[in-house]
């Protein structure tokens, strides 16, 4: 795969910025889209500051840093994605929002453009069905934080072609990720395995068998996890975690293994969403 291809990224938030960062770092041209010009500008500055820190740590040269910065171009117009070889959607985890984006992308992008969604749990088949190119629609699920997490799930919808999967695997390897292919099932692989991990931790806390701090410490010290389940929820965003659990629960027709926790729901209702809001299961205001 040539490195002069253009990648479109929809959404400049945590996931979109991370995807733009790694693609630009590996000398790919990135067109980063967001609906808000000021938000887009602010997030690109954050990406630039991350590149600067990599230089300070000796992980990038000055020239590589400047090239990477130049590789990212901002846009607030989806029409500018027309000539991209790939477009990766990283919008908020709301199915109606994603379907509307894919409908518009299908209209403006060239017929050979591959459209990928970074959804963590929604049906790739359903998202692809809104387009006239379901064979060129797939999942490309990165993990947070994107620059550090090596895995990416490449998800095959019911009508996704093998060629599309192969090209996305190549793209994943090109940006130094470990692509794992999987079928379009609720939660795919990682989030399906992770739901009982989060849910059981929430139950233990709710039943007051152990505190949040104790549960996290036990999983790190005894289980060898880098982060406990509550620390991880705060990092990812409790709202995102809760939405994913709801989606997997619904996708498996109410299987009790995946039932959401009302403790999570209350956090979302209160707006205490984790690190991004200054507090979640832990306080981050300091």
Describe the structure.
The protein is an alpha/beta fold and 286 residues long. It folds into two domains: 6-183, Rossmann fold; 192-276, N-(1-d-carboxylethyl)-l-norvaline Dehydrogenase, domain 2 (Orthogonal Bundle), CATH 1.10.1040. Helices cover 46% and strands 14% of the residues. It has an eight-stranded mixed sheet, with helices on both faces. Helix 1 links the parallel strand 1 and strand 2. The N and C termini lie far apart (46 Å). 43% of the residues are buried.
Q: What profile does the largest beta sheet have?
A: 8 strands, mixed
Distance between the termini: 46 Å
CATH fold descriptor of the largest domain: Rossmann fold
- What share of residues is helical? 40-55%
CATH-derived architecture of the largest domain = 3-Layer(aba) Sandwich
How many extended strands? Answer: 8
The SSE order reads: EHEHHEEHEHEEHEHHHHH
Say which CATH homologous superfamily of the largest domain is assigned: NAD(P)-binding Rossmann-like Domain
What is the alpha-carbon Rg in Å?
19 Å
- What structural class should be given to the helix and strand makeup? alpha/beta
Whole-number mean pLDDT: 95
Strand order of the largest sheet: 3-2-1-4-5-6-7-8
CATH class annotation of the largest domain: Alpha Beta
Share of residues in strands = 5-15%
Number of helices: 11
Shape: globular
Number of domains: 2
List unreliable stretches of 5+ residues.
Answer: none
Domain 3-hydroxyacyl-CoA dehydrogenase NAD binding: 7-185
Organism: Domibacillus epiphyticus
GO molecular function, one term: 3-hydroxybutyryl-CoA dehydrogenase activity
Domain 3-hydroxyacyl-CoA dehydrogenase C-terminal: 187-284
């Amino acid at each position: 795969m040539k490195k002069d291809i253009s990648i479109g990224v929809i959404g400049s938030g945590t996931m979109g910025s991370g995807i733009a960062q790694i693609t630009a770092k590996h000398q790919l041209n990135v067109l980063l889209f967001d609906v808000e010009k000021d938000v887009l500008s602010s997030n690109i500055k954050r990406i630039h500051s991350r590149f600067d820190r990599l230089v300070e740590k000796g992980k990038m040269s000055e020239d590589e840093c400047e090239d990477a910065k130049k590789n990212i171009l901002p846009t607030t117009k989806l029409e500018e994605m027309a000539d991209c070889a790939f477009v990766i959607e990283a919008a908020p985890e709301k199915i109606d929002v994603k379907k509307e984006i894919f409908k518009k992308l299908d209209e403006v992008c060239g017929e050979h453009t591959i459209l990928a969604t970074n959804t963590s749990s929604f049906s790739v088949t359903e998202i692809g069905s809104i387009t006239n190119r379901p064979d060129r629609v797939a999942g490309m699920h990165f993990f947070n934080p994107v620059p550090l997490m090596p895995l990416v799930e490449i998800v095959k919808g019911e009508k996704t072609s093998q060629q599309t999967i192969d090209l996305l695997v190549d793209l994943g390897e090109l940006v130094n990720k470990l692509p794992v292919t999987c079928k379009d099932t609720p939660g795919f692989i990682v989030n399906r395995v992770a739901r009982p991990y989060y849910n059981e931790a929430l139950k233990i806390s709710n039943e007051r068998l152990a505190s949040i701090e104790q549960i996290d410490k036990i999983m790190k010290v005894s289980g060898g996890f880098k982060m406990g389940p509550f620390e991880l929820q705060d990092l990812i965003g409790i709202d995102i975690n809760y939405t994913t659990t709801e989606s997997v629960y619904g996708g498996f027709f109410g299987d009790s293994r995946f039932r959401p926790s009302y403790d999570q729901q209350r956090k979302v209702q209160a707006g205490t969403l984790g690190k991004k809001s200054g507090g979640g299961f832990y306080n981050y205001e300091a």
